[in-house]
Amino acid sequence: MLDTVDLFNDLSSDEKSEVLSASRTVRFQPDQVIYTPDDLCDSLCIVLKGRLRIAKVLPSGREQTINYIEKNQIFGEALAFAGRKCASHVFAEEDSEVLSIPKKALLYAFKNKRFLFSYLKSISEKTLNLSYIIELLSLSTVKKKLASYLLELSLEKGSNSFELPHTKKTLANLFGSTREAVSRNFSELRKDGIIFMPDRNSVEIKSSKQLEKILFD
Description:
Elements: H1 13-21, E1 24-28, E2 33-35, E3 43-49, E4 52-57, E5 63-69, E6 74-75, H2 79-82, E7 89-92, E8 96-102, H3 103-109, H4 113-138, H5 142-157, E9 161-163, H6 168-175, H7 179-191, E10 195-196, E11 202-205, H8 208-216
Helix pairs in contact: 1-3, 5-8, 6-7
């Protein structure tokens, strides 16, 4: 069960068995709430099946999606030891199973120094990603958000040509916009010759300077 999660690669079979013996698996139905801001998050969670959505629920009832958690991904690394309530809502997007690993099991696993290093690295990467999402949401228009997103992907992939890891619907949720607005801005970037899309899931940036101009104007 832990063999498919990179974070636990440095644990021995006996150490993994010890962690699993102290953990529990919980099943959720689509749209079921897993955590609310009133819940204390004191466990590390692994998505064994399905997909989860992290979102802020505004006073109006509207949801602002912050991130998605896919199968074999983890969440709650920092909150497990913070002694604080969950900052956002966590929903099941579809039929999902989540493995909940309590703090005491993690403390046992930390005796393995390589695992402890991997755990701290995971927290650092998540913190950097959250900072980027906050920066993205602070941009004033969908076009600026899209320009920032494409430039960041280009840096991450080390190339001006790459596959889009998110659907337009997912991007709309991340941008706090609509699918139609995201599609329209993709079309405008193509029409202006700033990007080329050989198919719906691939992008080639033709002019990084133009994307930067959109971002900083």
